[in-house]
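Re: your question from the hallway

Yes, I did run it. Sequences:
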Amino acid sequence: MLDLCLVGTGGMLPLPSRFLTSLYIKCQGHALLIDCGEGTQIALRKAGCSFKSIDLICITHFHADHISGIAGLLLSMGNADRTEPVTIAGPNGLCRILSGLMVIAPELPFEVYVRETGHIDTPISLGAMKIQNFPLEHRIPCQGYTIEVPRAGQFLLEKAQSLHIPMQLWSHLQKGETVSAAGKQFTPEMVLGPARKGLKVTYATDTRPVDAIAEYGRESDILILEGMYGEEEKLEKAEERTHMIFSEAARLAEQAAAKELWLTHFSPSIADPFEYKTAVQKIFPNTVIGEDGMKKSLKFVL
Amino acid sequence: MLDLCLVGTGGMLPLPSRFLTSLYIKCQGHALLIDCGEGTQIALRKAGCSFKSIDLICITHFHADHISGIAGLLLSMGNADRTEPVTIAGPNGLCRILSGLMVIAPELPFEVYVRETGHIDTPISLGAMKIQNFPLEHRIPCQGYTIEVPRAGQFLLEKAQSLHIPMQLWSHLQKGETVSAAGKQFTPEMVLGPARKGLKVTYATDTRPVDAIAEYGRESDILILEGMYGEEEKLEKAEERTHMIFSEAARLAEQAAAKELWLTHFSPSIADPFEYKTAVQKIFPNTVIGEDGMKKSLKFVL
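Structure:
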């Protein structure tokens, strides 16, 4: 099970009615946060997301609205008596940015590991989740993330029995571990069917609509994209500022064959993003207009 | 006239129901902000305080809850098309702290002047306001501020007439300027009575109750002090963490002969600071329990 919370839905600057865009994902006790602008710790608290359990914070890029809340969040995690290490991942340059921002958090009761991800890095593992970064197109280096929970194939009872594998080893094989018994080695492949569809969430904000989003976001259960402006007439402005308008995000969702599209990162100039709902759903029917604190749980389909 | 807004009233960390402690003061088109923690820009917007007009930001000390919102606020002031310079004042070390925090705001459409104030510096002038820092007692260097609007003495018509000062020069003398006419020099002292009581606001948070507060805060119209804890039993904890409890602040207000005491900087452990109102008013009757966005206008008494 993957529990998602769209913590905030604003872009550029935080408003009394709209916190900055951020995503919280929890899976088997491990939590991941994507982006942490000013006020994200307030929004997390309001949404009832435990920030003490955040093991990994992924940063998309270094514009203030995506990272300015990081020192405050880490301090509050410390005040909540967290002692386990926290990893912060983000584009190259992250160490330098954090050295600056962390000047007001010189002492924390836990270790902070910094992982600068290159152009396309190897996935980060967090419990059952695999997190893969991919490049976006913004004024400054920016990256999106896919979060996947892979699912092993079905356990084939007959095969296990025919190979005479002791029953107490079955659960290990189901978990993907290789086991030995009576001098013989058994691998998961011997007793598992083909891998089944797992869970997949893709997150990309602050970008023009590049193919990498459809490629990495392919068949996502939820594709979370920015909708900086609602009006078609703002396309030029979006291009100039390297952002996306609602309809561009909707076309990407279609291209990626995503199950559901969540729009977020609304410009402060958008008073009510729901105004554009009907128009955007004509392009991609399963579009959801994001709201602060919106939650969903994803489960494996039987 | 001095317009005050207690922007937030929280201490340590921002809560959905309580922004971090900060004070906004406006006088004749110039605005001053004391402290800027995470979310202060949201609280300013909520309270309807124009942050575009902030000319001076005074920082009490470098704990995150007092300064972590500064880069975001400056960026938002830039987005609001401010082009006039902004001065940031605070304890020694301010340059180093700002170099860190401003790493996410490398380009602003206005100049930022940094003023590191020594132990006790000369007052900063901002329009009609004089801002004086004074030392507090906290775990790290911390300072309070008095904001005064001095008021010249009454204009003595008979004196001006007997000195044969041309009438068109009277307003200059009233403003405190020295003027010349027919080869003679006239100073304000020649035509003004003794200086009258001006306006005075004193602000001190994150401190033990030191004499300097009563001394610098003497006869303040409003004395704004921290009330980190309400219960008397938390005195030891307050001492240990170099904070004040409500009753200590009330005794300081009495010692300073302040007109009114505003309490702020409540610990997140205080669900409702009004619980302690009756008890604290027994010590100092004119105690006001601070609330986010609380406003007051001070005028010269005729």
